[in-house]
Write the C-alpha cells for this entry.
Amino acid sequence: MSMKFKAFLYKLSPLLVFILIFSILELAVQIFTIPVYILPSPIASFRYIITSFGEMWPHMQKTFSQYLIGYPIGSLIGFSLALIFIMSKTVTKAISPYLTIIFCTPQIVLIPLLKVWLGYGATVCTIVCALSCFSSTMTQIMTGAEMIPVERFELVKSCKGTKLQSFFHIIVPSCWSSTFTGLKLGAISGLAGVIGAEMIGDTRGIGYVVKLDTNIYLMVEMFAYVYVLMAFGYIVYSLICLAEDKFVKQ
Amino acid sequence: MTDSIIKMEHVDMVFHTRTQEIEALRDINLQIFKHEFVSIVGPSGCGKSTIIRILDDIIQPTKGTITVDGYTYIPNKQVPKEVIRKFGFVFQNPNLLPWMTVKKNIMFPLKIFHDKDSQWEKVVDDLLKISGMSEYADYYPGALSGGMLQRVGVLRAMSYQPSILLMDEPYGTLDNLRREQLDMETMRLWDTLKQTIIFITHNVAEAIFVSDRVYVMDTQPGRIVEEVKIDLPRPRTPEVTATKQFKEYKQYLTSKISNVDLNAIK
C-alpha cells in the first residue's frame, strides 16, 4: 500500500466509519425486518431530509438561531465570571455558594417557570441554552487556572510584573486549553438545553417536532430531525476544535 | 573581590498556613561578592530556594536586613524595579511558557519590564548564538529535550543582562553527563559576561566544581552551618574532579551534609 493511498485512507476514515455504521443499521432493518416504530430505515430518513427540507427548515432555523444566540452569550458569561473569580478571592467566596446552587439545579425544572415569566417565545429557549452552557465554560476555565504552576506567576514576580500582567500573560493563555474544553462541553449542553426547552410547551423548533413525531409514531421524520441535529452538533464541535488547533500552540 | 554585592543579615522566614507556622529560615547571614560563583547546598526542605526567592523579592522575609548593591530592602515595601532587574532567576524546572516559541520565551521578561523588542532583539539573538541555540529560536518548548529547555531557561534569565544570576537547582533533573556539560557552559557564560551567580544544588560535587564558595545548610529550621572556600584553579574542566584536593573538599562537605541529614533524623 503506497504512502499516498494510506494518507488518503487516513483522511477518509471518519467518513468510511459513518458509511459503515449506517450500512449496518440499514442492513439490520432490512434483514431482521425491524418495525419502523423501533428503528426506521436510515435511507428513508435521509430521503425525507432531501425531499422535505423545505418543511423542516423553519424548525431547524428556529432551533439553530436560538442556539447560535444563546450559546455565545452563555459562553461569554461563563468566561467573564471565571475571570472575575480568578482575579478576586472575595467575590468567589461571596458568590460561589449561589452558583453551586444554580449548577446543582437541573436546568429543565426552570423551563416551566421561565415560560410563565417570559411567555412561550424564543427568549426562553435562548436563556435556557445560555444557562445550560455557561457553567461548563466557567468551571473548566477555573479548573484550568487552579492548575497553573506557581512558578509561572513567580516568573512574572521575578520581573516585578503587575497582577494585570500575570492575568494577561499567564492566566489567560494558560487557560486557553481548558477554555476550549469548556466551550466544547458547553456546546453539547447548550444544544440539549434548547431542545429541552422546545420540548416543554413550544410550538416550533426541532425539540417540538421530535416530541410531536414520537407521540404519533412518525419515526422516519423523527429520526430525520435527530440526524440533522447530530450533524449540526458535529459541525459546531468541529469548528471549536479547529479554533482550538489555531489558538492552543503547545 | 572586596565589594560585597549581596548581604543578608539575621534573615528569618516563617510561613503561615491555616493550621500552623513553619519556620523555614532562621538567622541567615551571608555575603556575596561581585563576580563570585557561590553555591548553597543542603538537604531537601532546608530553605535553599527560599533564600533566593527572598533576594528576588518574590517572597518577603519575616525579619532581617538585605542589601543588594547598596540598596537596603525596606520591610513591607516593594523593592524598586531597578534593583530587581539586577537579578536573573533560573527555575528548578525550565518553566517555559508552552504557547511561546523559544525566542519569545527568552524575550518574555523584556515584555514584563515593558522594554521595546527592537532594542533587545540583537542581545537575544547574540545569546542564542553563543549558546548554539539559534536554529531552535522558532521552536515551541514541546519540541525540545530537557537539557535544551533548561538552557532556554538560563538564556531567558540572561535576556535583560542582569548582573546577578539566581539559579535554583537548574540541572537537578538531568543526567550526570548533561549536567556536567551545562555546568561547564554556565561557567563559561559566567566568565564571559562577568556576572555573579548564586547556585542552589543538592549535589556536593556539582557545588565544588562550579563554585568559589559553598554554603552548607541544615534543616528544621533552615540555617547556614558551614561556609567553605573552594580553592581550585580556573578555568575548570571535568578533570579537576579527579584531583586529590577536589576529593578532599567532597569528603569534607559530604560529611557536613551527612551530619546535617543525621541531625534532621534525630
In short: Chain B has a mean pLDDT of 89. Residues 4-86+162-265 of chain B form a domain with the Rossmann fold fold (CATH 3.40.50.300). Helices of chain B lie at 48-55, 81-84, 102-112, 117-130, 146-158, 176-193, 204-210, 244-265. Chain B is about 35% helix and 25% strand.
